[in-house]
Amino acid sequence: MKASDLMSVDIIAATENVSAIEVATRIVLGAINGMPVISKDDGKLLGVVTTIDILRAIRSGGDLTTIVAREIMSPGPFSVKEDTDVNEIIDLMDKNGIIMLPVVENDGRLVGVCSRSDVLKEILNERFVTIGMTRTVTRTIGERP
Prior knowledge:
Blueprint (H helix, E strand, L loop, with lengths): L2 H4 L7 E2 L4 H11 L3 E5 L6 E6 H9 L9 H4 L1 E2 L4 E2 L4 H11 L3 E5 L5 E6 H9 L21
Parallel strand pairs: 1-2, 5-6
Antiparallel strand pairs: 2-3, 3-4, 6-7
């Protein structure tokens, strides 16, 4: 089983200049623990903003309406390719306390995310088949036609 089998492709990513309050709102409304940050120009992964990054900004007296994602993100996050094996994904998550791993193409462009729950759901559903449901990949920033 590979990352491409597990990953969520319908994701929300922030561009580097989005305000922290917008990122925080999306995280809360989406009931997610973090959000990838990508370049507006080419869709390449730049970092990840997690709930703890936002809480640190609040604790230090930051104004989430004036801070941008680039200022609070964790730059250069761990990421995996679509062909990364599930055991490697689990190892990365376990050894580094990672809840969500961005999935990128060879050029660094974000194509999905693998969360702990994505991995667990796929492992538990391995013996079942869903009929009539397909994954779709939509065109993203920086994708070449």
